[in-house]
Design brief:
Length: about 130
């Protein structure tokens, strides 16, 4: 059967479906290239700032002697917990966006969630020291 214009019916849907995997790969590959090193740096920073969870320790510092950034402050613990609580779901969303590349529906929320969670993790980590 042909349409009013003389073209065969049903050809438009085939060309749209063929572009979808290419778009998904064009989004997922750069996202993975950027996100994996960022997640490694975030894990390193969380391990580096792990003493922020335990408190000031037996020898509290003097800001006049040690400098303002060297002393423990209570908000460091809060930002560490926020960064950990946001970074772990960010890693999960990155994994899901790579695993669900072949799915036909609802793939786009995973890369968006990955980007949002990693930006939130970076903001929390920048406020620890």
């Amino acid at each position: 059967m042909t349409t009013v214009n003389g073209r065969p019916e049903g050809t438009e849907t085939v060309t749209i479906r063929n572009r979808t995997p290419a778009v998904r790969l064009a989004v997922a590959i750069p996202l993975a290239i950027v996100s994996v090193p960022l997640l490694l740096v975030y894990v390193f920073n969380l391990v580096w700032w792990a003493p922020a969870l335990t408190g000031p320790g037996p020898n509290p510092c003097d800001p006049a002697v040690d400098g303002w950034g060297a002393c423990w402050r209570p908000e460091q613990r809060t930002f560490w917990m926020v960064a950990a609580a946001v970074g772990l779901p960010g890693a999960f969303c990155l994994t899901m966006s790579l695993l669900r590349l072949h799915r036909a529906r609802r793939w786009w929320p995973w890369p968006v969630a990955t980007a949002v969670l990693l930006v939130a993790c970076a903001q929390a980590l920048n406020r620890i020291p």
